[in-house]
Amino acid sequence: MPLQSLIDDALAKTPPGRAVWIALSGGLDSSLLLTLVAEARHRHPRDLYAVHVNHGLQSAAADFELHSRRLCTQLGIPLSVDRVAVAENHESGLEGAAREARYAAFLRHVGTDEALWLAQHRNDQAESFLLAALRGSGTRGLAGMGQVRHWRGRRLMRPLLDVPRSQLEALARQRNISWIEDPTNADTVQDRNFLRQRVLPLLEQRWPAASASLATSARLAGDADDLLDDLAALDLAVAGGDPTCLPVHALLALSGPRLRLLLRYCCQRQGLPTPPAARLATLIEQLTARHDAKVHITWTGAEARRWRGHLYMMETRDSMPEEWWASWNGESRLLTPLGPLCWQLQCRSGDATSLHVSPRLGGERLHLPRRGHRDLKRLLQEQEMPPWRRQDVLVVWHHDTPVAALEPTGAFGVCAEGWQLTPI
């Protein structure tokens, strides 16, 4: 299919009223994509925008930005430019840090339910497959980039993913479309550039269809990964359906591969980083620890805990500073180290109140309606609240008397007689 027809079809399938954003780097691929979409919108009217992310990592960064501005002016397309700071000591390296900063910029500009089009092509997919294979990735990594993906409420599309770069370059030259060559492409210190400049050309000398075959393998790996997701979803349903809290007995009934698959799937469902293989193995081993053992496994950005026969997986939790406290009128949205306070507290007498909030230290007692004075520690135990959540409970004081205990998130709250506690 001619490239322009490919773009026309993709744009026609975008629901009317949904804006389309083009990630414009200023290189060959994105410059051509923007030009083709600009023409297609005359036949399939859509709101069209471009976003350029300036990473500031090379001397040519200003040239890329200038070219992007000129091209958008020429085509009559609004352009947003986002200059980002990239952490050079990032744990995933400079490339990973740049990608993270780039996608954070996309999130700032592309609205919910809008579409973001990226210009990756078949050669990029082949490189991604090789990189994933060399890193020992499973099917999800080998699947590379998806042609259509839902991401943070946005729709990511790669309409050129099945098109070889040679075809893109031929059309760009035929139509006299200008672009900026990335001078860092020649730097083979970076893994992707090494594959692009050294490895793939060598493979294609021996196997001319190497890039196409690798991209096909990535697509097949994607199909296999979708099937594995279906299997994991079935296992999750049997285990109760909650990816944050899994009964250990249901986990131990699974084979090793299915158990690892389910745990990774539950992380992905929550948007958590998946644990490295060694951490995952440790986590599974700890499932059979004695019932009173304090099982707590951490990895970057996430943690898992076992308590009362269940496995809990969650984001890494910040601890509440013991010295923190704040004044509160019971109505305004109070910001705490664990997030905003999602409660309102009012004295039933209607009198104006002056309150202060602090972490629980132990020994607090609340005078509850029809129950008398009750120790807060016992109240939390009665709620079967996991120990790590009990550490987040805040106590609200009126003068020297505790009048409420609550979690900032609104998950748990209790107040003393004469007071009314309302989640917001």
Description:
The longest helix is centred in the middle third of the chain and has 29 residues, at 210-238. The protein has 424 residues and is an alpha+beta fold. Helix 5 (122-134) packs across helix 8 (191-206), helix 5 (122-134) crosses helix 9 (210-238) and helix 9 packs across helix 11 (256-270). The protein has helices at residues 3-12, 28-40, 61-75, 93-109, 122-134, 139-142, 165-174, 191-206, 210-238, 248-252, 256-270, 277-286, 376-382, 387-390, and strands at 20-23, 48-54, 79-83, 115-117, 148-151, 154-157, 245-247, 295-299, 302-307, 310-315, 326-328, 335-336, 339-340, 343-347, 355-359, 365-368, 372-375, 394-398, 401-406, 413-415, 419-423.
Question: Nutshell version of this structure?
Answer:
The protein contains 14 helices and 21 strands.
Task: List the defining traits of the structure above.
six-stranded mixed β-sheet; alpha+beta; five-stranded antiparallel β-sheet; globular; 424 residues; Chorismate Mutase Domain, subunit A; Rossmann fold
The overall average pLDDT, rounded, is 92
Class by alpha and beta content: alpha+beta
Radius of gyration: 27 Å
State the domain count.
Answer: 3
Write the CATH architecture name of the largest domain.
Answer: 3-Layer(aba) Sandwich
- The CATH C-level name of the largest domain is Alpha Beta
Order of the strands making up the biggest sheet: 3-2-1-4-6-5
